[in-house]
Amino acid sequence: MNRLCVCFTILTLVISMSGVADASETCVVTGKVRDADVGKGVISPSGQLSVPVGGNVVFGSLAEDGYEPAGYDIYVNDVFQEYLPYNGIRLEVTSSDPVRVEAWFDDIRDAVAPYVEITEPASSSITKSGADKKVTITFETDDSSGTMSVYRNEVLLSASAVSAGPNTWSFENLALRNGDNVFLVTVNDNSGLPSDWGVGIDMLLVHYSPQTVDNVRAAVVIDERLYNEPNVAQKLNEYITDSDDQLGTGYDIVLDVVNGVDDYTTDEVRSYVVDLKGTHEFLEGVLFVGNIKLPSFYKPRDDMPHSRLIAHKYEDHDIVLRNNGGADADYDYMSKGRKPYPEIWTSYVPVGFAGGAPENEYSDFAVQVLSFLDKALAERDGLVSHNGKFYKVSPQLWDLGGVSRTLGVNNIDFYGVNDSCYGPYHYYDGNTVPQPDPPLTPEDYYVNAMIGSFGTYEAFARYYWRWPWTGDYWQKDTILIDHFNNNTYAMAWLNAHSRASLSIVTTSQAKSISNGGFVLLAGGCDVAAIEQYGSTSYVDGSCINVDDNVLCGFLYGDSKFLAAFGCPFRRGHESEFNRMSTLSGQGDHAGLAHFFRKCWQYQRSTNDYDFKMYTQELMLGDPFLVLTESTPTPTPTATPTPTPTPTPTPTPTATPTPTATPGPDMYVNDVAMSWYEAKNGYVATATIWIKDEYTSDVDGATVTGEWSGATTSGDESGQTGQDGKVTLESKAVKGGGTFTFTVTDVSATGYTYNPAMNVMDSNSISAP
After folding, report:
1. Which of 190, 244, 376, 382 ranks highest by number of CB atoms within 10 Å?
2. Residue 181's pLDDT is what?
3. Which is nearest to 391 in space by CA: 470, 469, 308, 493?
4. pLDDT above 70 for 346
5. Residue 110 pLDDT more than 60?
């Protein structure tokens, strides 16, 4: 097709109308990340930002850094508000009428583009010309080349946008009627829009729509037979109403009671979901309540011949799913479609018991659904609250930086390293490893690391990475039960070897826990490996009924857990649950936090194998849960309290200043050697790879070292690139020999070189 080319790396929009409102008034800015015509989630993680008229919202770019995705810090009038891990724009509000602003970009990763709604302040005055409104649109680009053409409803207007300064364009007093679309396109000539302009065209779009738009953001779907069971209809409607109220104006949840939906094939369920999305343009997700069937998939990991249930078919509407004949499951091949991310999130309140029909009547299913609804309604009514803290037990830290930013270091209880445990636990994967006498016990490992006592998360991370890995199997059920019976956490992350009926605790133990938390993040293998009663989708024998599943035990038992996340398969990937920090501190509801995390997994998947392995997690339970609705009430044990003896009381002069905090440690991760034959002899090369304590590549580090062996030298130095690597060459030596390169120093602004962390600092190679 004839493609219009534009290159917006930074885009500033000013949308104004004659009759500017008083500066003391506020506009509410909400939005959705967009990929062409498909909604991707709100721009503001909290759903909306209050912005003074005449103020601005800035989505400041952040580069990719280690575990952190590229994203944006959001500022209102230069004051930090929150963090958004996706692309955005700078939007300046001077006055407003309800309009939409959309944009497509060639050069922004994965073609994610923004969508914004601006809600008019109640008292603002708007000059009208009949049914028309006079709108002024001003915008900036990073390139002033080409011509900025203006289209209204696909018709090229006689006038182009005019220059309003360097790289700034303006189109003034544009008359718009309800439903008009305005396209501002950078082109190299004045050819018209292609006939298929609606798909992937590079442009800025302003859609004028002063009338009320469809605010349906989510749907709840249930079979009529289950809905008609005693108390189900009443409590489900109450749950939807309370969730609607909690999520606020502009977020509507619809209930769809469908006759026979539990008997739909997975193709029929998918068609239903796609139609639902077509009816409600801004639909973000669907909660399926009951025995609505999921499809199955075979072998995400090449070494694990498992068939389990997946949600991709309902969430990703252009995914490629096939059965190539190698499995009894519905599918054994998947690949991303044209769009880079799923269209919606889905969550499930599954039902089912062991045995046949007598144990799986709708009256039985209602028991499980009502157990969930009773807990959810208690939370909505304020009868239960969490302590505002994040609990994690794991032999791996991964990255809790996002959690520390949203909750604070004093509100993280991390169990995975302490001064008493060193090296892997004595029983690891069936093998005994050397231990002191007497050997360490699970109680030595399962100890709160007291992250808050380190002052900052970065200081704790430096401490953590200096200790060897703790191994596994020390996560003891009785300790977890004690913690969960005595605390109600906002979120709890359990990372241990697991199965469908075990995640540190068994299903029966999970059902009997009295508190625990609101959101359960289960990082172990197989925890969501459920089977569905009456399903024709084949799953392997490791899958168990809902009543016996450990995630559902937490969800339907006595605990306070309302939402649970886990993988149906044997893991070959990280869960990326640290990406859900937006749920714990930025106001995202659970469904949206799950969606953002899954988008990150999609982004990491650069080939079909990674894609089928990285994106398997299911969400069970309450997708409308918003943790910030509860007031954190930390218990005394939540506050790290250093013992009096080792922690002296600082004097006023000893108060640390920000400059006293050292930068991250860095180390030599590898010294890779090679050689080649030059005209005057053999030359050796050493490629030195520098990483920081978070395993991120260090750009701009100066590496100094010296050659020995076949040749000698004084100090040789070079600077690492973005990949953290620098290559240094020896002098040419006739006849060759053994070349050795030894790193003697590394320096970089903002980092501290820690030779004790070096994986290696010297290496040799013989040539020829």
Report:
1. 376
2. 53
3. 493
4. yes
5. no
How does pLDDT run across 33-58, given as a tens digit for each residue?
Answer: 322 222 223 334 444 444 444 444 44
Q: Which tokens in the block code for residue 368?
A: 């499980």
Burial (0-12, 13-18, 19+ Cβ within 10 Å), 681 = middle
**Alpha-carbon distance 118 to 44, whole Å?**
13
Q: Where are the alpha helices (DSSP H) in 619-687?
A: none
CB 150 within 8 A of CB 171: yes
Q: How far apart are CA 239 and CA 370, in angstroms?
A: 11
**How are beta strands 412-415 and 390-393 bridged, if at all?**
parallel
Look-up of token digits 């909306």:
48
Tokens for 448?
A: 């709160």
Helices (runs of H) and strands (runs of E) counted in the chain: 14, 44
Q: What is the pLDDT of residues 632-663, one digit of tens each?
A: 333 333 333 333 333 343 333 333 333 333 56
**CA dist 134 → 15, 174, 223, 311, 459 (Å):** 11, 5, 49, 46, 55
Question: How crowded is residue 456: how many other Cβ atoms within 10 Å of its Cβ?
Answer: 13
CA–CA separation, 109 vs 98, rounded Å?
Answer: 29
**Is the CB of residue 399 less than 8 Å from the CB of residue 67?**
yes
Which secondary-structure segment (H or E) carries 460?
helix 457-464
Tell me, what DSSP letter sits at residue 390? E
Q: What DSSP designation does 125 have?
A: -
- Distance, in Å, from the CA atom of 719 to the CA atom of 599, rounded to the nearest integer, reads 34
Per the CB < 8 A criterion, the answer to whether 619 and 563 are in contact is yes
SS3 labels along 90-109: EEEECCCCCEEEEECCCCCH
Q: Is the pTM of this model over 0.85?
A: no
Give residue-wise pLDDT tens across range 539-582. Answer: 999 999 999 999 999 999 999 999 999 999 998 777 888 877 65
Task: List all residues 6 or more positions away from 189 whose beta carbon is below 8 Å from its beta carbon.
Answer: 147
**Are 149 and 190 in contact, with CB atoms under 8 Å apart?**
yes
Q: What are phi and psi of 650, to 5 degrees?
A: -70, 145
Residue with the two structure tokens 């596994």? 472
> How far, in Å, CA of 511 to CA of 219, rounded?
28
Could you count the other beta carbons within 10 Å of the beta carbon of residue 159?
11
Q: How far apart are CA 314 and CA 345, in angstroms?
A: 8
| CA 702 – CA 760 distance, rounded (Å) | 17
Give the residues across from 165 on adjacent strands.
168
Side-chain-side CA neighbours of 174 within 13 Å: the count stands at 30
In whole angstroms, give the CA distance from residue 681 to residue 731.
9
Element containing residue 162 per DSSP (H, E): strand 162-165
Of 68, 20, 26, 72, nearest to 45 (Cα)?
72
d(CA 362, CA 365) in angstroms, rounded, equals 5
Beta bridge partners of 677: 682
> Can you name the residues that pair with 706 across neighbouring β-strands?
742
Burial class of residue 223 in the structure, from the number of CB atoms within 10 Å of its CB (0-12 exposed, 13-18 middle, 19+ buried): buried
Token pair 């917006």 in the structure block, residue? 8
- For residue 438, say if its preceding peptide bond is cis, omega within 30 degrees of 0: yes
**pLDDT of the residue at 130:** 34
For residues 266 and 532, the answer to whether their CB atoms sit within 8 Å is no
> Which of these, 155, 188, 18, 201, lies nearest to 97 by C-alpha position?
18
Q: What is the pLDDT of residue 24?
A: 36
Structure tokens at 333: 């091949």
Q: Do 307 and 297 contact (CB within 8 A), yes or no?
A: yes
Token pair recorded at residue 110: 């994965």
For helices 362-380 and 232-247, angle between their N-to-C axes, nearest 10 degrees? 30
Euclidean distance between CA atoms 92 and 492, whole angstroms: 39
Find the Cα–Cα–Cα–Cα dihedral 47, 53, 55, 57, rounded to 10°. Answer: 20
Higher per-residue confidence, 169 vs 455: 455
pLDDT at 714 over 60: yes
CA–CA gap between residue 283 and residue 646 (Å, rounded): 55
